[in-house]
Amino acid sequence: MGFDQYHEPADELPDETRTFARLCASLTEEAEAIGWYEQRLAVESDHEALAVMRDAQGEEFKHFCMDLEFLLRRTALWREIAEGILFQGGSIVEHGEEAEEEAVEGAAARGAPLAGSTSLGIGGLRGAAS
Amino acid sequence: MSHLLQEHAPITEAGWALLGDEARARLTPALAARKLVDFAGPHGWQHSATNIGRTRALADAPVDGLTALQRRVLPLVELRAPFSLAREELADADRGARDVDLSALDEAAHRIATAENRSVFHGWHAAAIAGVAESSTHEPIPLGEDCERYPRHVARAVEVLLRAGIGGPYGLALGPDAYTRVFETTEHGGYPLFEHLRKIIGGPLVWAPGVQGAVVVSQRGGDFVLEVGDDLSIGYERHDTDAVELYLVESFAFRVLTAEAAVALTP
Hints:
The structure holds 2 protein chains of 2 kinds.
Chain A: H1 15-43, H2 47-74, H3 76-85, H4 92-109
Chain B: H1 13-30, H2 32-36, E1 38-40, E2 49-57, E3 69-75, E4 77-86, H3 87-94, H4 103-122, H5 132-135, E5 141-142, H6 150-163, E6 170-174, H7 176-184, H8 193-201, E7 202-207, E8 214-218, E9 224-228, E10 233-239, E11 243-256, E12 262-266
């Protein structure tokens, strides 16, 4: 169904939240498509069909990464956690725990807005200087 | 509805998003103090004062044979920068105009950021705020206009802090005039002065509107605290058929906990 990416009534959601939800839905679809192609590639024996599907899966990789980058640009905390996990060697779980802890505690230290606040959300800027 | 009364303003959701983005874009580069001192909060609009653990003795008590102390607190100040926007401009923004005149908001953002910086670095006597520079226990170092001598002055300030046992890294708040001179200058050999100063202090070098001269501040943390009640927000005042009156507002106080953790460089 075209509108089921919204968990709350769409007309009560701000524009930016609707856009965010659309991109989350798109990210999910791209990940699903990547998984489907992976399964098809695993069972296909026709070399020409394999080449076509590898090319198609590459498109899905690209779409997934573009969706993810958009979402990370719009969500500072998510981006900060992602930076601590993605493209790092070593234990994924350890990096995840560390990145989450540092990012969440860092957000509090920077003066993240109170829940329900309509402030500009600027807070502290230590580390933001040139 | 919050005290900002935003819901009463004749501004669409997209209009509020535009104003928020513009305000953040203008405020963030200018809020130098927040880049160099600790930030505590936001504690909310109802937060009126911070406990500093101090008392003062009262001369008398209601009954003989008693002593009395009164708690001292750090009261927050409300700082407000009003500005007016043409409703026609906001309507054009809703139609997709990209060149909306928000200059009044930009000016208000610069005013309130300058005021915050000045309060933190030079104090605000009427609000009982003592600034970093005036509280420093160290002799100020004359900065002058010959910026080729700035590395020597800044290195001397760092040495003063080290001798006082104040660890680094250190940050440098540069007033606009000094900042421009530094940014435009290349030392003998072509090395940018900006980079040389950054190597000396080991921390951030910040453009600081409202600062006179410059201030070297320890970045080890725990020495200076900006206490914020309600963080910078946009509020609604009133409107007519032509214009909407808004304001930028914040409530804050500032505390110097280690007066010897900074050195002023006077213009």
